[in-house]
Design goal:
single chain, alpha+beta, Jelly Rolls, TIM Barrel, Immunoglobulin-like, six-stranded parallel β-sheet, 16% helix, 35% strand, globular
Length: 724
């Protein structure tokens, strides 16, 4: 290959505490910091490029000491050498990621800036880089937002106007600690040196046609660096899901080129529980005059059709023309999203699949490419949030600038086959409905504030329709009656209201739930590693089983409630959340270290593609079979009742459930008095005795009241919800 990459691994960093670097022209490399000892920090060598909080602090997830990272900009400096012979090449400087704002200078020349945290970017430096020594300067900052709607100061974390499109920040209600605002260069920048000829701006679009055929459109440009390489060609190879060659063709590689590949009977991508991920691999290879490869682009792709059908009575997701019941969970694995290794993603996704989830909501942030690649491979459908949440400025300048960031997100992610639906806004303006809880004057504040849904939502919908017409969207998550949204959030028995119990959802209906959940700390043995968090929970140490047990009860009750209403009318639920996103955020079924809480096993039983459910009704226990697979299931339902751990009664009967359906499969008529010491075990057995589905009810149907002391308030120093 005639393309070479070189990592820039040697970096120094300093904090410009008075923000004088640009005025003093640091980037000219003429400043001796010893001449400004009262103003400047010294340059320090860093061994790894990641978030500065993770480099300099032992506890980067809480603490007022973290605030100084965002009070002034940081400067990075890197020196590198280029040998003679590259002056006739084309050279690019690539950044894997920077959080959040940056400006870049090379050899004293300003290359440009970037805003955002989730995407890579690059600059062509062919005319700026030189043989011998080169000096690169990068200014990075992520300032705090300061504007809050007047009258809403008491609930700042909800009402602050988020200037950055960075949903990870300013969520200080026990989700992300008040003082955490990630900043830094993430990943190693590198040079890409292209010496003779290369591929440029290769784009691949694939879609499923109305006649069932798959169409792949490939376009690009061949750039000739040296004249002798004019006789180049481009080879297009398509490998099928079974790795068999589907198409192999050669086209002229001159200048701009475009080609199509038609796949007559494409294998359709599906979720893991409905046939699995069927991926194609497209190889675009540029060959020189002798036929030798000099540059290449490879892309995995798949064919599917996605739609979200909404009307006043129904909200339902369709995949490949068929309704798909979504058993979902929300995912936000770490505050510092750019520093998550691929192995961590794979570990979490394996546990999700074992727990029965087939859909994931990426909650108010964007993950790294590795996550979406693994979802493609492992067969998870992704509902992707933008970073627009709760409250933002509504000036024309702000909206236009940040819509560009939204565009980049759509263009970056739309090609992943796992993408199922966009969520454009999360709970916009909902904070206003919480004002009375904080004793604020609701009507006066609302009259002074703009509607985020109106100011931003309309433009987001127009842009996503234009940029990605192949995927549906939810305009404002939680706006159930809005036919451009249609989903609901439900926290009865959880969060603030101590007057509600999770059983209050009985008799209610939701068409498409995208949030329900309950926070509970994980094993204290893990939290002991972070002493302040452990010590904050010591007052309720003896009640940890009760707190974790309530999370189990709530999640089981909600999940079964939604599954029993399969398509009548409920067609989706998304538990909030799968894993704690930092050591002190407890919404997950796994703690931050990836250790399952008690609730994981409880949900795992009832969340499989086939489930057997029990529910008391009119003096009997009704049994429901739910089948989300494409195969009929039949066998025997066996129930066993235990009292004080001893056998009380057992019975069984034949039952079955058709593919993609649910059925009332019988009743237990003489269960006896409901009591805490009475447990129920259900098995749905195939003819050979293998278990199709199982379920347990401990203290069967004696539901818990909202536990005392949950939640009391947020400890803002630790960023955690506390109990008493």
């Amino acid at each position: 290959m005639h393309v070479e990459t070189r990592n820039l691994s040697d970096w120094q960093v300093m904090q410009d505490v008075h923000d004088l670097g640009e005025r003093l022209q640091f980037y000219e490399d003429q400043i001796d910091l010893l001449e400004y000892p009262h103003m400047m920090s010294p340059w320090e060598k860093v061994d790894r490029l990641t978030y500065l909080q993770k480099i300099y602090e032992d506890t980067p997830y809480f603490g007022r000491k973290l605030r100084y990272f965002n009070t002034a900009p940081w400067w990075y400096r890197s020196c590198f050498r280029l040998e003679e012979g590259v002056e006739n090449s084309r050279i690019w400087l690539h950044f894997p990621g920077v959080d959040y704002h940056c400006k870049v200078w090379l050899n004293g020349r300003y290359l440009g800036g970037h805003e955002g945290y989730f995407d890579d970017f690059s600059f062509e430096i062919s005319g700026t880089v030189k043989t011998g020594e080169n000096i690169l300067y990068v200014k990075v900052w992520s300032y705090w937002d300061t504007e809050v709607d007047p009258g809403a100061e008491s609930m700042r974390c909800f009402a602050v106007k988020r200037n950055m499109v960075k949903g990870t920040c300013e969520h200080g209600d026990g989700f992300i600690q008040r003082d955490v605002n990630p900043v830094g260069i993430i990943g190693i920048p590198f040079l890409e040196i292209k010496r003779e000829c290369f591929l440029n701006a290769v784009k691949v679009e694939n879609l499923l046609l109305e006649d069932g055929r798959g169409l792949i459109q490939i376009s690009g440009e061949t750039i000739i660096v040296r004249e002798k390489e004019r006789d180049s060609l481009v080879r297009l190879c398509l490998l099928g899901p079974d790795r068999a060659l589907v198409c192999d063709k050669e086209i002229s590689g001159q200048n701009l080129w475009r080609e199509e590949i038609m796949v007559e009977e494409p294998a359709l991508w599906n979720t893991w529980d409905r046939g699995g991920s069927r991926l194609y691999e497209l190889q675009v290879v540029l060959c020189d005059a002798s036929g030798e490869p000099v540059d290449s682009v490879c892309k995995c792709l798949g064919f599917k059709e996605a739609d979200l059908v909404r009307n006043p009575d129904r909200t339902c997701f369709y995949l490949n023309g068929r309704p798909l019941f979504l058993r979902g969970t929300s995912y936000f694995p770490d505050v510092y999203v750019g520093d998550i290794p691929r192995e961590k993603y794979r570990h979490d996704l394996i546990l999700m699949r074992e727990a029965g989830f087939n859909a994931i909501r990426v909650h108010v942030h964007v993950e790294q490419p590795a996550f979406y690649e693994l979802c493609d491979e492992m067969g998870f459908l992704v509902f992707q949030d933008s970073d627009f949440s709760w409250n933002h400025p509504t000036t024309e300048e702000w909206v236009l600038r940040n819509l560009e960031i939204f565009d980049r997100m759509v263009e970056r992610l739309r090609g992943y086959v796992c993408l199922g639906c966009w969520i454009l806004l999360n709970e916009p303006d909902k904070w206003k409905t919480l004002l009375s809880y904080f004793g604020s004057c609701l009507e006066e504040i609302i009259s002074k504030t703009d509607s985020i849904t109106e100011a931003i939502g309309k433009q987001l919908t127009e842009r996503v329709r234009r940029l990605d017409p192949g995927h549906p969207y939810i305009r404002a998550s939680y706006a159930e009656e809005d036919l451009e949204s249609g989903d609901s959030h439900n926290y009865l028995g959880s969060l603030r209201s101590q007057q509600s119990n999770y059983t209050d959802i009985e008799g209610t209906t939701e068409k498409f739930n995208t949030e329900y959940g309950m926070d509970a700390p994980g094993p204290l043995s893990n939290l002991y590693r972070v002493k302040p968090l452990y010590e904050a929970l010591l007052p309720v140490e003896e009640r940890m089983d009760e707190i974790q047990g309530y999370q189990c009860r709530l999640l089981k009750y909600y999940t079964e409630h939604y599954r029993r209403q399969r398509f009548v009318p409920c067609s989706a639920y998304f538990q909030f959340m799968f894993i704690d996103l930092c050591p002190q955020s407890f919404y997950g079924m796994l703690d931050w270290w990836g250790i399952p809480k008690a609730s994981y096993q409880v949900v795992k039983e009832i969340n499989q593609p086939v489930a057997v459910l029990a529910h008391p009704c009119e003096g009997q226990i009704r049994i429901t079979l739910v089948n989300d697979t494409e195969q009929d299931k039949s066998g025997i339902i066996r129930f066993t009742i235990f009292q004080n751990g001893l056998l009380y009664r057992q019975g069984e009967w034949e039952a079955g459930v058709s593919a993609d359906s649910s059925v009332q499969a019988g009743s237990i008529l003489a269960f006896g008095p409901l009591a805490q010491n009475k447990d129920l075990e259900l098995l749905f057995l195939a003819g050979d005795g293998s278990v199709i589905a199982r379920n347990h009810y401990q203290g069967a149907f004696c539901e818990w009241q909202h536990i005392a002391g949950h939640p009391v308030r947020v400890n803002n120093e630790l960023g955690m919800r506390i109990f008493r």
